[in-house]
Amino acid sequence: EIRELSDKGKKVEEREMADKQEMEVRSNLEGFIRGKNPEKRAQYVNTHEDGSTLIPENIWGEIMVSLSENAPVFAQSRKFPSLAGTLKIAKENTDDQAGFVGENEEVPSIRLKFGSVSLNQKRVGAAVTLTQQLLNDSGVDLLSYSSDLLARRAAKAIEKSIFKGEGQERGFVGVLSTEGLASEGLNKVELKATVTGDDLVDIINSVHPAYLQNAAFYMSRARFNAIAKLKDGNGDFLLQSGNINGKLGTKLLGFDIFVSEALEDKDGIIFGDFNAAYAIMVKKGFSLKHVSADTQQSLNGTQLLVLDGYMDGNIINAEALVVAQPKA
Q1: Strand order in 269-272's β-sheet?
Q2: Residue 239 gets which letter from DSSP?
Q3: Which pLDDT value is given to residue 10?
Q4: What are the DSSP calls for 5-53, one per residue?
Q5: What digits encode the pLDDT tens for the residues 267-296?
Q6: What are phi and psi of 318, to 5 degrees?
Q7: Of the residues 129, 153, 226, 320, which has the maximum number of CB atoms within 10 A of its CB?
Q8: Contacting residues for 198 by C-beta, under 8 A, at least 6 apart
Q9: pTM of full prediction above 0.90
């Protein structure tokens, strides 16, 4: 019993030390943003000659959570961590071979029909301008304010790239890009000028049932507003809001529905399971850059905070998605 109490006390002490160190890291990062105490913050903040600093892992984790909260399609896509180089991922499909075999028979290998995709390191960034008045206000938690604002701005860029990026040097391969729409196995539905409940059922039925459990709708605000008015034969709205299965949210015919600023009315409706369909490589090592001495910031009396990291995204299983668009 004495040993058990000793172990508990040791764990409490270790937790308190970890909490204290985290507070010191946050305090020194706050000093980095405000441009104060460069000698003191050097103990916990790895500042480079160009004025950037590598974000500690706990703060990096907070930013990743904020990215997921502000870009649902990013949260639902499959993430692969990477430290360096190119990541090659096999494409998947529902034709993979498996089954029972008899004695002395060869077990069928899983045949990956579509080959593989390569994910490279592409820079993703966002910036926020801080006024001197805000920097001088000690009552403002600048670290939380800045990291949240930067994450929200980066999330919009990432979300747009997942949906509409054209790949190449500067972006992901988006679902609605030329390459994305040409993906083998991608399900396509033609939308009428006025979408009906039957059209939505056709969209759902276009996806293999294996991908329906985690499927969701993605659309523009204009599309959402139009669909929100649809009713079934009993006069009940197809769109349901409130506490559904113990979770607050909005569902359409039993599936989650998300509105994206990256999508326009002409983009139509995307439906499917992004965890099965889309892969994102995330390189650990987001950095913050504090710019205060350049001409523009000096003239404006402001300071610039830049967040950047490296990611890439591509479709790995087009069969898990359906794109419903108006006829061109």
Answers
A1: 187-191, 321-326, 269-272, 216-219, 255-259, 247-252, 239-244
A2: E
A3: 65
A4: HHHHHHHHHHHHHHHHHHHHHHHHHHHHHHT--HHHHTTT--B-TTSEE
A5: 999 999 999 999 998 887 677 776 655 555
A6: -65, -20
A7: 320
A8: none
A9: no
